[in-house]
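[SOLVED] Predicted holo structure with 1-deoxy-D-xylulose-5-phosphate

Edit: marking solved, answer below. Original request kept for reference. I posted the sequence and ligand SMILES and asked for the 3D complex as structure tokens.
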Amino acid sequence: MKNIALIGSTGSIGTQTLDIIRTHRDEFNLVSIAAGRNIELVLKQIREFSPNVVAVERKQDAEHIQQQVDPAVKVLHGKEGLLEAAVADNADFLMNALVGSLGLEPTLQAMEAGMDIGIANKETLVTAGHLVTEKAKKHQVQLLPVDSEHSAIFQSLEGNRRQEVERLIVTASGGSFRDRSRSELEGVSVEDALKHPNWQMGAKITIDSATMMNKGFEVIEAHWLFDMSYDDIDVVLHKESIIHSLVEYRDKSVLAQLGSPDMRVPIQYAMSYPNRLELNDTERLNLWEIGKLHFEKPDFDRYRCLRYAYEAGRTGGTLPTVLNAANEEAVRHFLNGQITFLSIETHIEEALGRHQTIQHPDLDTILEVDKETREFVSSRIG
Ligand SMILES: NC(=O)C1=CN([C@@H]2O[C@H](COP(=O)(O)OP(=O)(O)OC[C@H]3O[C@@H](n4cnc5c(N)ncnc54)[C@H](OP(=O)(O)O)[C@@H]3O)[C@@H](O)[C@H]2O)C=CC1
Ligand SMILES: CC(=O)[C@@H](O)[C@H](O)COP(=O)(O)O
Ligand SMILES: [Mn+2]
């Protein structure tokens, strides 16, 4: 039995993680959850899964929940509550399904406690990949990829020698506006940007997918998870999201993982690794029906965020922290209707352009740069 701490329980990845726990009660036991403000759903989750520890963002919500549930349930709030929920009781696996760099500190803390991590929260690896991978090595814990592309790469690496890998090929759907030219992006609505062609995901990642910042983040994520140079990580547009990513070996053999788009597959694999459990109610891949798969080279002028991500990743230090924080802030303002879709890129470019990179930053430096970048972007928006 694996004891699971789940942070981000009310989101897209969080609720799908609970689907897996629900169907494999003999394998997984939920000991804690953390969420933001969706209190009705948190209450439902407490009633169904009986976690011992629960954390939410605000004090008044924690007090409300505490009055509604068994007094034995410990209901916490704020950053301290989130950190405590991440390492609660006898949890031995943390599923990090939070959105944003908020996920960094709970990840580091859980690794210090010797827990393996299912890492959906890619912003953690973008903002401080060096700290996370160093800590994983130091405490000998596993970082199990949940992101579909990284799970595909992880699966395509299994049973092979790492030193024989030549290249990683990360697939990209192209997002909500994949069939539009750059000039057709002027004035697009939030509603249209939220219509991803293949995946049902949280709002922030859906916008990241439309700007291709998601793919840029995934390149940085692949760099840290698989210790690959940026020169050996390519992106290919593949609009069907059937091939989830590929690994090329030195004999030019290419291995890949395929399947109908369903995040429960990589979520479950991260939780059950090295075992594979049944997943019955997912769509079986039917190649006869699909007929054709398409591939294209991405244009770095059309998808500027992808270019910024390669540049920030190659520079390293605090520049990826700036990339992430500026993006989080710009996307938040876009979702609130305060800036246009194309100005997401402009704000990120400005934030990157003014930053003096600090190499080998420690946690305090990362947190300071993150805060300062958010303030800068917000101040430009007014
Ligand atoms: N969704 C997907 O299919 C995929 C997602 N990912 C990555 O996984 C991560 C999660 O994405 P997704 O599930 O889509 O995101 P969602 O927006 O759906 O969920 C985010 C979760 O974080 C919680 N949260 C937000 N702010 C706080 C806070 N201050 N304190 C505590 N909890 C907070 C939310 O709580 P609440 O709603 O209660 O406020 C919610 O539970 C992201 O990093 C994303 O890039 C990667 C691959 C695929
Ligand atoms: C499901 C998943 O892993 C997402 O990160 C997905 O990759 C988004 O799709 P694109 O960024 O390729 O549009
Ligand atoms: Mn992905």
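OP edit: Residues 2-141 form a domain with the Rossmann fold fold (CATH 3.40.50.720). Thanks to everyone who chimed in.
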